[in-house]
Amino acid sequence: MEKIIVRGGQRLSGTVQVEGAKNAVLPVIAATLLASEGKSVIKNVPPLSDVYTINEVLRHLNTDVEFNNGEVIVNASRELFVEAPFEYVRKMRASVLVMGSLLGRTGKARVALPGGCAIGSRPIDQHLKGFEAMGAKVKVGNGFIEAEVDGRLKGAKVYLDFPSVGATENIMMAAVLAEGTTILENVAKEPEIVDLANFLNKMGGSVVGAGTGTIRIEGVDRLYGVEHSIIPDRIEAGTFMVAAAITQGDVLVKGAIPEHLSSLVAKMEEMGVTIIDEEEGLRVIGPEKLKSVDIKTMPHPGFPTDMQSQMMALLLAADGTSVITETVFENRFMHAEEFRRMGADIKIEGRSVIMNGPTPLQGAEVAATDLRAAAALSIAGLVADGYTRVTELKHLDRGYVNFHQKLAGLGADIERVKEVEETPVSEQQDMIKDA
Ligand SMILES: CC(=O)N[C@H]1[C@@H](OP(=O)(O)OP(=O)(O)OC[C@H]2O[C@@H](n3ccc(=O)[nH]c3=O)[C@H](O)[C@@H]2O)O[C@H](CO)[C@@H](O)[C@@H]1O
Ligand SMILES: C=C(OP(=O)(O)O)C(=O)O
């Protein structure tokens, strides 16, 4: 087991480069299954454990997948197998995103039921509702969801009860090869949806309206492998923006797209952070004193739930009372307990947390409960007194590339160690000095 060990007190400065977006690359790789001719070449792909997992799922479905130097090449021209087993879905829920492509291309998909995870129960009823509207028969049993259609899927009108990101993506992928027109209403508007639509259109699909509340898809007979470059990761960008702000730092987050980050920029500016739109990205300058604000997570363009735990770290350092309300996931406050272990004054009331800051945080051993919590706890460690040890880094590796190296490059005192060598050399030297 590995740990991140961070010693608080360093101001961050310099430049950090953002990778391609995890939440854009996973659906795009799932969509490569739709290309019955030619190879798909996906560029700007981050080497995350989730990317390795989706590549494994695709190989299991009888495709050839290569992943080198930030480029994934998929040849899906052979006949596809249609089953994604539990061993993959357990590792990564986004494996269910192959369902729409498989159903669209082969008329059949069998995917292990994803189950819940640390942030809530996360059902996929809206995905299935879309497939059923297009004529698929859906059966759930023995731990699997099976969807099948006689012949081709038929275009349909589908209204989502909630603008689910995954349901929007899965139904879009199913609809591009369906017969006729599909109209999806109350859909997700996240930038990752737009990236997927752009990829599907390059492949020969006809998808209009991505980024708005209604998407219209004209089904086509065939799709082809094409080249596509993934958009920058707005959540990774936001994570480094918060790290800069909390340390009173001055950091250029290269690759951050301001339009993708408007709700975060607005809240950070309200807190007194200076954010400058530069040619290469966003420059973030932390103030001496942060002001408290209230936050409510919402589907895009609202405040992203994937930035909630990082903002919790920042609000703990702010002067006054702040409230965060989580409306997207039913149980995404597990990290609050870990912040408490660092001395935070946090109260959980239903779907809200109330924080009284500024909290002088103390270094402690804390466990990451999901990937964003791993980042948020490390960020809190940047301003805590003494050493913070963050465990359960398998979560971090799902969504961040070289996280501790990037922070170290900005001046943080941070290392990642194996459990056996728990005490890093620098800390041992401190202990010798103190003795
Ligand atoms: C790989 C990926 O892109 N993951 C992102 C995606 O997850 P994901 O696509 O799973 O998130 P959704 O937008 O689907 O889920 C949002 C909410 O809707 C509920 N729901 C969803 C589908 C459904 O059929 N029924 C249902 O009730 C979920 O339980 C959750 O409470 O969007 C989330 C919300 O922005 C982000 O936090 C995740 O990082
Ligand atoms: C919750 C997240 O991802 P996933 O949907 O892949 O679990 C996330 O990226 O913060």
From TrEMBL:
Keywords: Transferase. The keyword Transferase applies. It comes from the Bacteria. Its EC number is 2.5.1.7. This is UDP-N-acetylglucosamine 1-carboxyvinyltransferase.
